[in-house]
Amino acid sequence: GNSVTQMEGPVTLSEEAFLTINCTYTATGYPSLFWYVQYPGEGLQLLLKATKADDKGSNKGFEATYRKETTSFHLEKGSVQVSDSAVYFCALTGGGNKLTFGTGTQLKVEL
Amino acid sequence: DVKVTQSSRYLVKRTGEKVFLECVQDMDHENMFWYRQDPGLGLRLIYFSYDVKMKEKGDIPEGYSVSREKKERFSLILESASTNQTSMYLCASSLGGVAFGNTIYFGEGSWLTVV
Prior knowledge:
Oligomer: heterodimer
Number of helices of chain A: 0
Order of helices and strands of chain B: EEEEEEEEEEE
Structural class of chain A: mainly beta
Helix content of chain A: under 10%
């Protein structure tokens, strides 16, 4: 079946540091890939997505590229802010309505 | 903006009680979902519904049932709550299939504690 593996957190960075959160997946066929973000006390929000190989999703300074050859979808941001502190979830869908999520990575950004 | 509203943010229930978690969306979405979120496990799908009165089991349906009598409302039912159902429950909705680029919108979650 489908699965998503994310790097464990928490990840602690200083403001303006470079962020990478690793995500790799196992899936049959050609899944669509997503990053969701959960701010404290809130539900999940879609951050970005990519629906085919080599697509780059981007939003709010975050980027991720769908790499089929390495089955990866790593999240990056060039300069993080304190307001980026949240839990980030990588997810995929292999078809239909079902999303498979990773375990989440907590990011803490300090001044 | 799409609004997915979960009626209760925090609940404390006793073992063996019947528990109802209610969810309403205001965008006429076809699909609705219930997930539970646990530390170290991420989100796991309990049930989803793709139309009124239609439902499908997700990955962890045991101990749960659902009801969708109206398009905008999707209820999660714990027939006899147990302590291992203490968790954060997230409701979500989407206009169409996620695989076709439709976004899933989440509610703020319901924290359930079973004592």
